[in-house]
Automatic annotation (TrEMBL):
PANTHER family assigned: MYB DNA BINDING PROTEIN_ TRANSCRIPTION FACTOR-LIKE PROTEIN, MYB PROTEIN-RELATED
Domain of life according to the entry: Eukaryota
GO molecular function list: DNA-binding transcription factor activity, RNA polymerase II-specific; RNA polymerase II cis-regulatory region sequence-specific DNA binding
GO cellular component: nucleus
Protein name: Uncharacterized protein
InterPro entries, alphabetized: Homeodomain-like_sf (IPR009057), Myb_dom (IPR017930), MYB_TF (IPR050560), SANT/Myb (IPR001005)
């Protein structure tokens, strides 16, 4: 199946009216050479990876094997994507062998067993665990645990009290969702749940 479009939506710090406003979110400096690579779409706004973007990146990657520097890749890709975006799109969706789509019960069982029986707490050996799940990468496995499998996560709708905590957390921590989860919610709300609530409220 085709990889899902990578849509990025970023809000300004203003929360008034619940409006989502596009901003530059690439996490990169405004170095002129990098901005020239990233193109006008990197200046802000909502955008996604098109079929042509994916095909071009796949073609470019035929020249590179496990690059440590993705600036040349983004430059050669030439379609307004940052080095970070090219790296994430390739490793999460386009790289041959990466498994996409629905998680199977036996995969979930392996993740739960590995995390809950580990002597390392909190568990961080996601890349090592990926060796037991062919086609999955560490980032996918961590997200699966944090957002779906962790039994301590509260999946109930946010209450008014939760929203007040979230607002306070955003004032103190900005968009550091993991930190907000730990400090304000005692890690009982996933970072993904917190982030989605902030942008939808």
């Amino acid at each position: 199946s085709n990889p899902p479009p990578a849509v990025y939506i970023v809000s300004s710090t203003a929360r008034g009216g619940g409006m989502v406003r596009p901003m530059n979110h690439n996490g990169m400096s405004h170095d002129p050479s990098l901005m020239s690579i990233m193109g006008p779409r990197a200046q802000g706004g909502v955008y996604s990876w098109s079929k042509e973007d994916d095909e071009r990146l796949t073609e470019v990657m035929k020249k590179y094997r496990n690059p440590k520097d993705w600036v040349p890749v983004a430059r050669e890709h030439g379609r307004g994507k940052s080095p970070k975006e090219c790296h994430e799109r390739w490793n999460r969706y386009l790289k041959p062998g990466v498994r996409k789509g629905q998680w199977q019960d036996h995969e979930d069982a392996i993740v739960v067993e590995a995390v809950t029986t580990s002597t390392e707490q909190p568990f961080t050996r996601w890349s090592d665990l990926a060796q037991r799940l062919p086609g999955r990468v560490g980032k996918q496995i961590r997200d699966r645990w944090v957002n779906h499998l962790n039994p301590h996560i509260n999946h109930m709708p946010f209450t008014r009290e939760d929203d007040l905590l979230l607002f306070r957390g955003h004032e103190e921590c900005g968009k550091r969702w993991v930190e907000i989860s730990a400090k304000l919610f005692d890690s009982t709300r996933s970072e993904n749940h917190i982030k989605n609530r902030w942008y939808s409220a």
